Amino acid sequence: MYLKSAYDIRDKYLRKDMLPTIFCPGCGIGSALQYTLRAIDDLGLNPDEIVWVSGIGCSSRVPGFVNFDGLHTTHGRALAFATGIKLANPDLKIIAFMGDGDAAAIGGNHFIHAIRRNLDVTVILINNFTYGMTGGQVAPTALKGLRGTTAPYGQFENPFDIADLAVSAGANYVARWSVFNYLQGINSIKKALQKEGFTLVEFLSPCPISFGRRNRMKTAPELLRWYQKITVPLAKAKKMSPEELEGKIVIGEFVDRDRPGLVREYEAYKKRAKKMMGWEE
Amino acid sequence: MRYPFPVGKSDFIQGDEAIARAAILAGCRFYAGYPITPASEIFEAMALYMPLVDGVSIQMEDELASMAAIIGASWAGAKAMTATSGPGFSLMQENIGYAIMTETPVVVVDVQRGGPSTGQPTLGAQGDIMQAIWGTHGDHMLIVLSPSTVQEAFDFTVRAFNLAERYRTPVVLLTDAEIAHMRERVYIPNPDEIEVVERKLPANEEEAKLPFGDPHGDGVPPMPIFGRGYRTYVTGLTHDEYGRPKTVDAEIHERLIRRIFNKILSHKDEIISYEKFMLDDAEIAIISTGIVSRSGVRAVKILREKGIKAGLLKLNTIWPFDFDMIEELAEQVEKIYVPEMNLGQLYHLVKEGANGKAEVELIPKIGGEVHTPMEIVERVVG
Ligand SMILES: Cc1ncc(C[n+]2csc(CCOP(=O)(O)OP(=O)(O)O)c2C)c(N)n1
Ligand code: SF4
Q1: Where in the numbering of this chain does the Pyruvate:ferredoxin oxidoreductase core domain appear (chain B) (predicted)?
Q2: What ipTM does this complex have?
């Protein structure tokens, strides 16, 4: 794959009057954003037909920096807003950029129901195991023992595996990478953007400031090495025992299927309604 | 356009049904909701009608999502509505604030029931007046309408959409369980008999770049809806005229919030509506809203028969509130009575309006029944 320079991507898609971004040095959100923009660019999608939606959190600030229509909503509820946008104008393609707290904690209910409905949306999910914007509290994705300001002695609850959850709830496409898997990341986003229904690309993303600092990984390279240690590719994971997988995170493409999306289901429903009422043959 | 109900003639229907039909005639094409008594019939009617008029009706996972979905739909260009009752209305408050801050036209119907909490699901109350006005946090302004008959439930729903579009604001139709479930004769007009207001769209690129500015000087910016190439960024954070977050600048916050207030307050003569019944020579005024007004009218008639010069002020708009008009009335009458189905909410607004110029007395009633006319009469006669 030929990669355009990052400057080209920046100049083409970012709002200059909104820069600099709010992101800390070493933060992975910028990388995930770059991959998303590269995927859009590679596919030649028309920015006028794309709406970015987000909730609240560091990750959710992304729609403000890109030169597209964007709705920066309330914490956790981006997918509920997206449901309205998509059904009111099915011609729009929707990208939801969200944090792990946003998607899996406060927004958990909206998340599973958007997937159950197979809402036509591509979710780019930034999983940094923490609440970045509010300064490093534990997120429901935090592995046992990880520290946050609200679990100073190490997380004692079980974590959510968001990708797993999305597969069970019925998503059409689910992949998880760390932001260091850039080619896989871009390819997954491209696939996701081309499919109907609910598609999710989760990125394990370094948050050196709110998360790393409290877990003895103050810099992005330290987090990079840690991600290399804890991630296991899907093919390898299949051969491992549950004990061996304890504390590890599987990365790869988990599902790729073509169930009808919500828009198509609703169009059929409208036809059925008119037929049942004798309005149409 | 074909309608799934008769138009241009009268029908004998419930308030909830009237609200649904009015919404469709006002151009509503997106409904999102979550069932709750006594508002469920609005949803059920919308579920029947919407697919037939090429609109959307969707059952969301909760009221937070319903409110969110209608805001999203509105930015995608649709006229959108949700309906709920007290507990659901509480859940919507966060996103009602978002709709105010982002100046999104939407209609929220709250059919009040007894509370707090799950309270009395099947019985009426007027306990959400303060919640409708002040439910969301921060300094904010919105419009609240209150019908007292099934015909008004229809008419005010159309008006709610028109005001929402005109002022780019959420409008709450605050109604009563009694009206929601009562059947009355309602005239359902032909579409050409109804005035339907459409939102102001940007006339050119310049206007589209200022989705939160004031290019027309009336405080209401044209709304650049999504998908038309305007590249609008919408945030609930304090933002400048262009929509850029500016969260620590006091001046920008002040300018934004003041404009959101003033676009409604400076048009309050157009927005506020009330009806006066035998008030011209009155010495005693009864001020009420919604279903209680109907007992109020009867009470005034009985009082007049007894030789007491009573009159009624029925508030069709609860917010914005015409404090000046109440003060003028207080200067004219000796005493104002406020019968309401709660332990005092409208009362506080009236008292503030009266400004000490007349005594204001609350006639509260809770538990699920509307005041009988005699209950009001007896309090006045003493
Ligand atoms: C209703 C509500 N509750 C709490 C908050 C405070 N808050 C803002 S961002 C955030 C968490 C963000 O974490 P995450 O979603 O993981 O995103 P990140 O910042 O890590 O990218 C919280 C709790 C809020 N804005 N709204
Ligand atoms: S706090 Fe963490 S997630 Fe937020 S910008 Fe900084 S590094 Fe990124």
Answers
A1: 282-376
A2: 0.97
